[in-house]
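Observation: inputs received (chain + iron/sulfur cluster).
Thought: call the complex predictor directly.
Action: predict_structure
Action Input:
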Amino acid sequence: MSDLAARISELKTEKNAIILVHNYQLPEVQDVGDIVGDSFGLAVSASQTDSDVIVFCGVRFMAESAAILNQDKIIIHPEPASLCPMAAMITADSLRELKARYPGVPVVSYVNTTAEVKAESDYCCTSSNAVKVVQSLHESKIIFTPDENLGKYVQRFVPEKGLILWPGYCDTHQNRVMVADLRALKEEHPDADVLVHPECTPEVIDFADFAYSTEGILKHCQSSQKAEFIVGTEREMTYRLRTELPHKKFYPIEKAICPNMKKINLEKVGASMENLAPRVELPRDIIEKAKIPLQRMVDIGRG
Ligand code: SF4
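Observation:
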């Protein structure tokens, strides 16, 4: 363990802090995490912890979700510039305009949204429960924002419903996970299952053997008889998979990087814990409104 990692471990005890780390974070950050997981798992952990301080290593919307679900805790985001571009693709104003065009139609927003957009939504979802959330609604028309690829994926499971989609996307999954990349890896590793994330394009999902959230990918690899897997999501997911399943083999797409997730490193984690800053603080009215769809997401559970 490095001196810095050892100091972070001391700080956890001194400050009664928990470090939550997303699967796409740098390996050095994953290694100091108390919990490493996907958006859903980390949101649940944030809502259940007894720690006084939550250090959230992920992009901003994830740290905001922790702040919304846990108002009596100090939420630290080690790098405020670590933002998700997809979350910036829809604003509260544009969602209000869309709602005005479809009065009475419920809004399901992917958790990759700002707190202000969540405050305008009826339900939140993650990629692990998007289908379950939409299936739980009685309405036949549903506004689904902001990830169009995830919306199209959900639509496959609910052909009886009409989803009104927003043209948002994740650059990493839309433009850095391509059929050609997967095909080349499959030619090299013909026995491997091809696993992709539902933020990928429909063509990529059609090519793959399975589409899952990142925790779904982990579960598949744990339970599968196979020993090799081609992983069509952000590259660092394979670090988590190798850590959990060292006897299996994982093949990432090397260019599938989310640069936003890489803005947090061990130095920033250490400095933020020494100073208990930068903190995530949101207006109380936004917290109160955003908590309703976010808590519904947690209550509905994984798909
Ligand atoms: S991988 Fe995509 S959706 Fe996830 S944080 Fe990065 S840009 Fe946003």
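Thought: report the result.
Final Answer: The domain at 3-84+261-282 is CATH 3.40.50.10800 (Rossmann fold). The first helix runs from residue 3 to 15.
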